[in-house]
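Q: Here's a chain of 322 amino acids. Please give me its 3D structure as tokens.
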Amino acid sequence: MSPGPVLVVGDVINDVVVRPLSVVTRDSDTPSEVLLRPGGQGGNQAAWLAFLGAPVRFAGRAGSRDAVEHARLLSTAGVEVHLVADESVPTGTIVVVLGPRAERSMFTDRGAGRELCEADLPVSLLDGASWLHLSGYTFFEARSRSAVRSLSAAAHRLGLPVSLDPSSVAWLEEVGRDTFLEWSEGTDLLFPNLDEGRLLSGEEEPEAVADALLAHFGEVALKLGGDGALCATATGDRMRVRAVDAPVLDSTGAGDAFAAGYLAWRLAGGTLARCATEAVAASGRAVSRLGARPPARCSAAGVTPDRCSVASSGRATPRGGP
């Protein structure tokens, strides 16, 4: 039997990607390439999972003005979509300003994603699922944190593994290491980047970071940017993978593609080495294109846009689905 879908819970966002074409001129104009792209960590991860061939279900919240369009984009990519349309708060926006080496600064307004609540995440979303993956952004608001922790507890009662991407070192610093570790207690697999791992572990070197985090999580996939990744389990397995050789245009979404690559092969029963290798390969594909989502696929997973509908202030339910 093929595995059930990964349920991804997180944000959809309107990304504004700014790539300066010359040295930034302060207090005046800088010629730039400005692109509007769909984004959001949860939406990106779901889209990459579908692109890589994994069954995936997404749950989140968007403003009513563009909720239908966000649902259509994800559904066309191959994602089963459950999206709440918020009548009072617009979809979040992130302005991503790219640096000369494709590094980026992000100016973030999570918008409707901040309003995610328990009513948006019924336990029925876990029906038939084989995995629950959470965006760490959902932990930084009390209402959404309560909702995802409740869903995580339900997943564990059903015997489903739970993974988490910490998401933001800036917000981790704000809430503090011990608080976040308490919130994420029981998580099976963590996807930190090195800065997040250092903050959560109190260690500096990747090996020491992984060792410290394995005291709290059964498995850690530590993203090392241009140095690849270090993946390890509490049972003693460990794999260091070098980064792939790829042109770097935009690092936005690279971590999301990494998590998707890892989970896709984890779901397929891949070894730790295979999961790590495919995760780094997916990340390499992401940095070689502008924007955080994978390229469009004409018939991804045989999914058509009519698989989902969006209800105002209610759940979006796939037609003919559960």
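Q: Can you summarize the key feature?
A: Residues 102 and 314 are 39 Å apart (CA to CA).
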